[in-house]
Amino acid sequence: MRHLRAGLLALTMAGACLGAALICRPGFGQGQAYKSVPVTLPTLLRDASFDAFRQQLAQIVQKKDRAELARVVAASFFWIPEESDIADKSVPPVDNLVKALGLGDAIGWESLAAYAEERTASADPQRSGVFCAPADAVFDQNAADGLFDETHTEAGDWGFPIREGIEVRADAKPDAAVIDRLGAHLVRILSESPAAENESFVKVLTPLGNVGFAPADSVLPLPGEQLCYTKETDGWKIAGFFGGETN
Predict the structure, then answer these.
(1) Residue 144 CB neighbours (<10 A)
(2) Which of 85, 160, 176, 177 has its CA 20 to 30 A from that of 230?
(3) Under 8 Å CB-to-CB from 74, ≥6 apart: which residues?
(4) Per the omega criterion (within 30 degrees of 0), is the bond before 93 cis?
């Protein structure tokens, strides 16, 4: 099951509550413990040519070079903000990418820069040869749905750590006391994030019921937007995008 995608830029903008579809709700009582839902964390896409392509993409972004960007967008580019592909096949593929990511302003380019830095990617189960970044975490959807129902929350209220052992601190400061650590499980992202005192932290509720702060770039939103790639005969190309706003 593919969920709605929204939120990678939320992390680069120092928090997990800036994505279009990522709405952090305060409905579940802060400080309440909840059932832990294990996740299999994403893995790196180990391909030297993909790493080289990401570096190329980063250079294009730095220059905001739309002509060069057009050369690395696949002719079959798709854009799926919700359930169906709305890419306009009558215009150049790069035009759809520009609209999907909002490259008409600086925030859109910052989002693309974040994708260029992302090293994880997972195969799209519906499209052969297509890999989407960041990679999805794998978890029991039934268990997650039960958790959402029990806590009166939605998928957009949750995230997962990029690795096990992420320290959760009592305050939004790097030297604050460690009160918990995040394991490989879903974690509740609270509405007060990002922390007003330090935007490099996001406020979380751990399964043990501890409310604290974790580095904003260490907790990925669930669900999140994904930029997809495919390897063609002349190299890697941007294949499509899951997410974005249609208006």
Answers:
(1) 16
(2) 160
(3) 93, 230, 232, 237, 238, 239, 240
(4) no
User: The tokens of 143 are what?
Assistant: 């268990």
Element (H, E) at 182: strand 178-182
Angstrom distance (rounded) from CA 213 to CA 211: 7
Say whether 199 sits in a helix, a strand or coil. Answer: coil
Please report the pLDDT score of residue 7 as a whole number: 42
Write the CB contacts of 59 (distance below 8 Å, at least 6 apart in sequence). none
DSSP 2: P
What phi and psi values does residue 2 have, to the nearest 5 degrees?
A: -95, 125
Q: How far is residue 97's CA from residue 228's CA, in Å, rounded to a whole number?
A: 11
Q: Are 120 and 135 in contact (CB under 8 A)?
A: yes
Q: What are phi and psi of 160, to 5 degrees?
A: -150, 150
Please give the backbone phi and psi of residue 26, each rounded to the nearest 5 degrees, phi first. -90, 10
pLDDT digits (tens, 9 = 90+) for 25-75: 444 556 789 999 999 988 888 899 999 999 999 999 999 999 999 999 999
